[in-house]
Design brief:
The chain is built from nine helices and ten strands. It is α+β, with helices and mostly antiparallel strands. It is flat and about 75 Å long.
């Protein structure tokens, strides 16, 4: 299935659907059936069943959700796609302009995501205007997507953070992204493709060097936002087994450790980069600001 349009319903966000909507067509509530493509063959029930499962999972406790979502989706792919959407701020690809696929639905193959049409990325809207948007904007694309928003509210967020810390040092490192932008700009200019684009669409940004600068500056700012949101694990932090009276809570980037026992508890805290921030005996309560280095 291909996400085709932002409709007024909930199917394109995987939050439900209008059961009365026609299913004898290749278009259904924002989706297009891309395969099978035989005339008169419509397979919307599989997508309905998947949406039903997502809605049901959303109401489950954390452990049940995590177990069920991994049975339905290629979770590595889902996490990579979630990060991709936010890293380049692909505002027109959060299920719209996305292929939702499975190799063999009748054999229980897992579902996975593939992007299509990436016009609205790196700080631009589909019409080429500046979006002014960055990763994890309040009310933004993650909140529209029932599956991804639930993943981020679950203990799977730890896995998302771990994957970001890995990719932010490699393919999403600013130096890697800028090298790719500059390489493509060089090819566009040398091949004459940029001149042909301007001849066809003179209203789009006409300064290639300026566009490169815009994209790189936007990415620097967005990369900082990604690190602030995902650079530290904030879900699933627990004291070691057997430490009665010890509590750990995370809110607004601050870890609060409480020790209601009579003796000291040895606490060691590491930041997202693996650097030790604190190692001390704790009596009573102690607060540590994540990422502060103190």
């Amino acid at each position: 299935y291909k996400g085709e349009a932002w409709d007024n319903g909930t199917a394109i966000s995987l939050r439900g659907y209008d059961d009365a909507a026609r299913t004898d067509t290749i278009y259904w509530q924002g989706w297009e059936q891309d395969y099978p493509d035989e005339d008169g063959v419509f397979t919307w029930q599989y997508l309905k069943d998947l949406i039903d499962a997502i809605v049901a999972m959303d109401a489950q406790d954390d452990a049940t959700f995590c177990r069920q979502v991994e049975s339905l989706f290629d979770l590595d792919n889902a996490i990579d796609y979630l990060l991709f959407l936010e890293a380049v701020n692909a505002v027109d690809n959060n299920l719209k302009n996305t292929f939702l696929s499975t190799y063999n639905v009748q054999k229980g193959s897992k579902w996975f995501f593939t992007p299509w049409d990436l016009d609205a990325t790196f700080g631009r809207m589909p019409d080429g205007s500046a979006s002014g948007l960055y990763a994890f904007t309040e009310g933004g694309q993650m909140e529209r997507n029932a599956l991804f928003s639930r993943i981020l509210r679950s203990s799977l967020r730890d896995r998302v953070c771990d994957r970001w810390r890995e990719l932010s040092q490699t393919v999403y490192a600013p130096s890697a992204i800028k090298a790719r932008i500059e390489r493509y700009a060089y090819l566009l200019e040398r091949s004459g493709a940029w001149a042909r684009e301007l001849a066809q669409w003179p209203s789009v940004p006409d300064d290639l060097a300026g566009e490169v600068s815009f994209m790189e500056n936007w990415y620097d700012a967005n990369f900082a936002v990604m690190n602030s949101k995902l650079g530290n694990t904030s879900v699933g932090i627990r004291p070691s087994a057997g430490l009665d009276g010890v509590s750990v809570a995370v809110a607004d980037g601050v870890v609060t450790v409480g020790n209601a026992g009579t003796g000291d508890v040895r606490l060691t805290v590491y930041n997202a980069e693996g650097r030790r921030l604190l190692s001390a005996g704790i009596t009573g309560s102690r607060q540590i600001a994540l990422g502060s280095g103190t």
